[in-house]
Amino acid sequence: MNPSPSPHTPSEPSAPAAPESDSKIRRGKRVRATVAVVAILLVGFIVVRIFTASGGAKKAGAPSLPVATAIVKLGDINIYINALGTVTPVYTVTVTSRVVGELTEIHYTEGQLVKKGDLLAVIDPRPYQAALMQAQGQLSRDKALLKNAYLDLSRYQEAFGRHAIPEQTLATQRSVVEQDGGIVMLDQGNLDAARVNLDYTRITAPISGRVGLRLMDLGNIVQANGSAALVTITQLQPITVIFTIAEDYIADVVKQMQGQKRLSVDALDREQQRVIAHGELLSLDNAIDPTTGTVKARAIFANASTELFPNQFVNAKLLVRTLQKVPLIPSAAVQRNADESYVYTILPDGTVQSKSIKILATDGEVTAVTGLDVGTTLVADGFDRIQNGVKVTVKKPSSTE
Q: Cβ distance 326 to 76 under 8 Å?
C-alpha cells in the first residue's frame, strides 16, 4: 500500500500558470512597439517641421512677383484738345445759268478738278449775238443823230450871234442835243447788256475745285435766275475742319491766338491711329452754344494730296501748349482709385510702395506728373497681385523684343 503524500510535500505547479506568464510578455512587447512607433512619428514630425520651416524661409527670401519697370524721366509734353470734326469746304458753288437757252456744249467730266475761269458749258449764243448786233446798230444811228444835232446847234449859235434867230430857237436846239445825247447813252447801256448776256452763254467755273455729278444733259432748255442747277463745284485746296471746344479750354486757346501764335491742328482717322493731314487753327465762333457748353472752331488744311474730303468725319487734335522739363512716366504705370492717382515705386530692398501723384497732362502712352523724383523706378505692369510691401523682381526682356 502506497503511503499518502504528506501535506508538506511540494507538489508540481498548476497548468494555468504558464499562460499568464506569456500574456505579460506579449503586453511588454506591445508597449515597447508602441513606444518605438511614437518615437519614430515624433522624429518624422520634427524633421518635416524643420524642412518646411527651412523651405518657407528660402521662399520668403526670394523675389516672387516678376514685373516690368520704368524710370521717371525729365522731358517735354504737348497738351492737346481732342474733338470730333467735320471736313467743310471753304467755298461750295452751285452753278446755274443767267440766260435762257438750249444747252449745246458741255466741257467737263464728272469729278474733274477745274480751275477758276475754265469753260464748263455753252448755251446757244445765236439769239444773244443777234441782240448784240441790234444794239450796236441802234447806237450807231443815234450817234449820227447826235452828231447832226451838234452841227445844227453850232449854226444856230452863229445865227443868234448875228441876231438872225430868236433865243428860244437856240434853246430848243440845245434841248435836242441833250435829248439825243441821252438816247445815245441808253443805246450804250443796251449794247453793254447785250454783250453781258452773250458772255453769260459761256458758263465758266467761278472757283477752283472738284466738279460734282452732271445735273443737266445736252439739248435741255436752261432757265435763267438759278431755277435749275447745271453742276456744283467744291473747293478742296485749301479745305477746313470744323470741330467743337469745351468752354473750359477757351481761355487757353484765346490767349495763344492773341499772342499771334499759330496753333497746330492734326486731323486723324476714326481710330485715331493715323494722322491724315496737318493744319492750323483759323478762327473761333463768336458765341458758346448754351445747350452743349462748347464753341465751334475752324482749322484750315492745305490738303495738297486731297486727303480730306468734304463732309468727312475726322478726329481733330488741337495743340494748345507744351509743358517743358516735367517728370514723364508711362501711362500704363498710373493707377487710380476713387480718391487719387498713384504709382508703385520700387524701394532699394526690392519691395514696392505706393505713392500719390498729380497728373498734369497725358499724350498717348506718356503722362506728365508731379510728386515723383527723376530717376525713380516704377512698376509698369502686373498690378493684379501688387500691394505695399510685396517683394518683386525685374522681368528680363524676351528674346523677341
A: yes
